[in-house]
Amino acid sequence: MKHELEIKTRKGDMDCSYGFPITRPRDVSLQELSKRLAEFAEVRGWDQHHSPRNLLLALVGEVGELSEIFQWKGEVAKGLPNWSSDDKERLEEELSDVLLYLVRLADVCGLDLGQAALTKLVKNAQKYPVVVTNNTPSSTTMN
Amino acid sequence: MHARLLDEAKNKEPCLEKKMEYSNGFPRKRDVSLQELSKRLAEFAEVRGWDQYHSPRNLLLALVGEVGELSEIFQWKGEVAKGLPNWSSDDKEHLEEELSDVLLYLVRLADVCGLDLGQAALTKIVKNAQKYPVTSTN
């Protein structure tokens, strides 16, 4: 599964070295994605289309595409051991589409998604405290 | 807008204290990485014995459910201005929570699938730039 895209890119689109994106795996921050997406929209004149409801509808559409990948596969083992590299790459793309619209939606709404996520982790920990008898919880969701 | 974090939360789950920087009971604002969220979610599930439930399809269904809850917030509001100028702080906090739920399931799903979501997202930004080049008529 390659992350190399052998193309010239705009300065703001990705860190480049001799026209190639730097492919060293590194930690990626939400603020970095947010800034890149804002520039991406601005230089294309797309800001006018990025209203919260438009972005939400786009996000919902991408979640639909993500769901289609799993739709007829039956249960899927962790790590996707039997998936082809093409299938994994497609999954990466659809997960990314959801993430990018989510980050953009939060930004356009003026919210700090990273901070909100940290706060939600703490709330979840309060809501579901660790107890020795909690191996079969009545709810396994985090909402 | 972020609710005060109770001291007892740190007592119930000691790992929270080392994993979140506190200032007078509030989390300090800082940049948040996808790897950090991924590690916290993995530990969260592990210490509760929830790994058995976190299959890819279960997580995807949970994600879809959270997107539904996110959509409900906007459903009857008509068009919404950027920055949500007319929203109450409670409404904004509710939106932050639902956005976070979607993000957390998405990060967990990618992790359980063995994928590097951050790297994939950077790659997708480059692909999008190729697909939609900047032109003066655009």
UniProtKB/TrEMBL annotation, chain A:
Q: Which cofactor does it need?
A: Mg(2+)
Tell whether Cytoplasm is among the UniProt keywords: yes
Any GO BP: DNA protection
In which domain of life is the source organism classified? Answer: Eukaryota
Q: Where is this gene product found?
A: Cytoplasm, Cytosol
**A GO molecular-function annotation:** dCTP diphosphatase activity
Q: Which Pfam families match?
A: MazG-like
Question: What is one term from the GO cellular component aspect held by the record?
Answer: cytosol
What keywords tag this UniProt record? Cytoplasm, Hydrolase, Magnesium, Metal-binding
Principal location listed in the UniProt entry: cytoplasm
Q: What is its EC number?
A: 3.6.1.12
Q: Does the keyword Thylakoid apply?
A: no
Q: Can you state which reaction this protein catalyses?
A: dCTP + H2O = dCMP + diphosphate + H(+)
Describe the protein's quaternary organization and the partners it interacts with: Homotetramer.
Tell me, what does this protein do in biology?
A: Hydrolyzes deoxynucleoside triphosphates (dNTPs) to the corresponding nucleoside monophosphates. Has a strong preference for dCTP and its analogs including 5-iodo-dCTP and 5-methyl-dCTP for which it may even have a higher efficiency. May protect DNA or RNA against the incorporation of these genotoxic nucleotide analogs through their catabolism.
Output this protein's name.
Answer: dCTP pyrophosphatase 1
UniProtKB/TrEMBL annotation, chain B:
Pfam families per UniProt: MazG-like (PF12643)
Q: What keywords are assigned to this protein?
A: Cytoplasm, Hydrolase, Magnesium, Metal-binding
Give the main localization category: cytoplasm
Q: What is catalysed by this protein?
A: dCTP + H2O = dCMP + diphosphate + H(+)
Q: Does the record's keyword annotation contain Magnesium?
A: yes
According to its UniProt entry, what is the function of this protein?
A: Hydrolyzes deoxynucleoside triphosphates (dNTPs) to the corresponding nucleoside monophosphates. Has a strong preference for dCTP and its analogs including 5-iodo-dCTP and 5-methyl-dCTP for which it may even have a higher efficiency. May protect DNA or RNA against the incorporation of these genotoxic nucleotide analogs through their catabolism.
Subunit composition and interactions:
Homotetramer.
Q: What is this protein called?
A: dCTP pyrophosphatase 1
Q: Record the organism.
A: Glycine soja (Wild soybean)
